[in-house]
TrEMBL record:
The modification N6-(pyridoxal phosphate)lysine is found at residue 188. GO terms for biological process: polysaccharide biosynthetic process. Keywords: Aminotransferase, Pyridoxal phosphate, Transferase. Belongs to the DegT/DnrJ/EryC1 family. The keyword Signal does not apply. SUPFAM superfamilies: PLP-dependent transferases (SSF53383). This is DegT/DnrJ/EryC1/StrS family aminotransferase.
Amino acid sequence: MITPFESPIFVTRPVFPDLADYTAQLTEIWDSKQLTNNGLQHKRLEGELAEYLAATHLKLFSNGTLALLLGLKALGLKGEVITTPFTFPATVQCLDWNQLTPVFCDIDPVTLNIDADKIESLISEQTSAILAVHVFGNPCEVEKIEKIADKHHLRVIYDGAHVFGTEVMGKPIHHYGDMTMYSFHATKLFNTVEGGALAFKEDHLAQKLDLLKNFGLLDAEQVVLSGLNAKMNELQAAMGREVLKVVDVEREKRHELKKIYEAHLNAIPGLRIVTSLEGAASSYQYFVIEVDQDQYGRTRDELFDALADYNVFPRKYFYPLCSDFSWYSRLESAQPEKLPVARKSVQQVLSMPFYGELSREAVEKICGILKELHVEKKEVLNYRK
Ligand code: T4K
């Protein structure tokens, strides 16, 4: 048996900037006496990110969830929103908090993104938008979704929590749809510890979002709408400015690790690498496999448990399906038979350790472990007895 790792290997590790550089930013914050409420660091990061991502408008938030929640609010959506059951709970919880009803659409078996070909049949008179997720950093079929939305006069919002800096057909990914949310959580390729942003094109949304994230305060004496506190503070913004300096290096390191995983895993029966559609880019946010029990000889859950003995701790992103949340049990679109692909994938996915600090040797060893744990067909018969 391959010897277990000495220390635990997690699904990810945050990107840390140079400590001395961050400390220098902190000194500036200390001198300025401004800790939050649209200070200098906030203004600078907003500008730097808009430039880096080539966004017409970009607004910062205290986290990705509040960015999405308030983005949906700013668009004034009503009724039903077609979305995916295969996502982090935040996506659909943002609909709940806006009194919008999710209509769950099944997913594509290759990318695990919403299946664009199944959206149209779910549109009703109540539908106001499509909320799609670029799952694991692999882009949705943005052009197909745009055509459907144009035909039926629907808004399109992307949960782009996983697609920082990704392009589709030579354009920044937020070019597609009315609005894209980015998450800058510690576990994301680009982080501000906690944080998020909205990228959008319509000018009138800029002031609305500024108001929504700051209690609806127009000035010290006028409250013009019902908002929330969703502001990014100066320490977060300064962290982001330093992480932005190293994010390209991080992406390149992950690119190299992905190649190593691919080279080894393609030879192991029953492990499918979740990929982008032909020709589409990936953000290198997660490296995800699907475990086919018949060919691999173990279920995903058995593999997950076995990896723990080697001190390897992947994650079952995204398990459970959002459509299985108890409060959706009466929704027709949440019924298990309506979502066969999502239902199968949710039992098979495993997000493997994937972050720049992980060494080449560690990835090779993880692949060796995956090979060691593969059970040959004749062994499977004995194993299951
Ligand atoms: N939409 C989608 C599609 C999302 O995936 C997410 C968030 C959102 C929306 C919401 O965006 P935010 O509001 O979060 O900006 C993590 C993250 O908390 C969450 O941001 C992320 N998606 C989700 C996929 O993963 P957990 O509960 O799995 O995280 P946790 O704490 O178990 O961390 C995973 C591993 O990372 C740990 O085993 C060790 C490592 N880690 C983590 C942290 C926080 C570290 O080494 N250091 C750290 O500081 O949710």
